Amino acid sequence: MKQYILSSFISKFGGGNKAAVVFDDIGLNEKDMKAIARYNNFSETAFISIKESCYPDFKIRYFTPEEEVDICGHAALASFFILYKLGYLEKEEAYHLTKAGKLKAIKREDIFYIQMKEPEIVGFADAGDIEKITTLKEQDIITDINGKISIVSTGLKDAIIEVGSMQALKDMSIKKEEMIAFCRSKNIVGAHVVSRETIEKDSDFSCRNFAPAVGIDEESATGTSNASLIYYIKTMAKEKIEKTSFKIEQGYFMDSPSNIFVYADEKTKTEIYVGGRAQILESQELSC
After folding, report:
1. φ and ψ of 171, to 5 deg
2. Which candidate, 216, 193, 215, places its Cα nearest to that of 206?
3. In the chain, N or C terminus with fewer CB closer than 10 Å?
4. How far apart are CA 98 and CA 101, in angstroms?
């Protein structure tokens, strides 16, 4: 059984976010998948069921070191990048069958775009809650149109926290135990903190993502949370942006500079696609 280690959402500086992709040709059970994901200790490990997959549909399950999740942007990108490299994709469009539903993957030149689950606002928090779980102060936080912090899901639930400056984004830190308790009380994965000030001139946003409740103190590149960010910007932000394509930078304060490209298709209902580049770091043989 083959496992590939990839870095997704790489930028011109390298960076990206590591994920493992397992080509499961023996029918692993959930216990085995959890054990492999825990051993890998990446933020996500994807398992492609070879027996249950046939182009254009690929059955994929996603595990953090702690638990299974419905979908993961950077692990999905890694999965379709390696499927393409190994010749499993007959055309530049396919689908992954996930616990979040049947979602599309599209290759455009050297970028794969992965469809996220239909976006929705699933709850709210108070700015005071954010002060309790981070070092951010009231003057740093920009609330949504309702004076709240929106919780958004495109497959995973994140609190979207907009801050007023790059300095606030760079200097902030989380209060780990308080954040874990907060995330569990709201039944969310983590917090996505965002600034409209950026490091690269052609970026639209700079962000940081924290999910200690699922074993990820900070993540260098995320798909679902950035999809949720763009839905928030279009629906709940005080200052909305009407364009459809965005470039987002993440991981710059972790020495892993990453670029995430997000496209919002609004022709009928809002569909959010998360895109990026990936590279293969190594391949391994697994035995169970």
Report:
1. -80, -20
2. 193
3. C
4. 5
pLDDT value at residue 273? 95
Handedness of CA 134, 137, 142, 147 (dihedral sign): positive
pLDDT exceeds cutoff 80 at 268: no
Separation between Cα atoms, residue 30 and residue 38, nearest integer Å = 12
C-alpha distances (whole Å) from 126 to each of 5, 159, 245 are 39, 10, 29
Q: Is the pLDDT of residue 288 over 70?
A: no
Q: pLDDT digits over 215-265, tens only?
A: 889 999 999 999 999 999 999 999 999 899 999 999 999 999 999 999 998
Number of C-beta neighbours around residue 4 at 10 A = 21
- Looking up tokens 């692993």 gives 28
pLDDT, mean over the chain: 95
CA separation for the pair 153, 141 (Å, rounded): 20
Q: What is the DSSP string of 97-156?
A: EETTEEEEEEEETTEEEEEPPPPEEEEEE-HHHHHHHBS--GGGEE--TTSSEEEEESSS
Cβ burial 211-224 (10 Å sphere, 16+ → b, else e)? bbbbebebbbbbbb
3-state secondary structure (DSSP) of residue 173:
coil
46-57: average pLDDT: 95
| 74-83 average pLDDT score | 95
212 secondary structure, DSSP code: G
AA letter at 119: P
pLDDT tens track for 149-169: 999 999 999 999 999 999 999
CB 89 within 8 A of CB 80: yes
Q: What are phi and psi of 205, to 5 degrees?
A: -145, 150
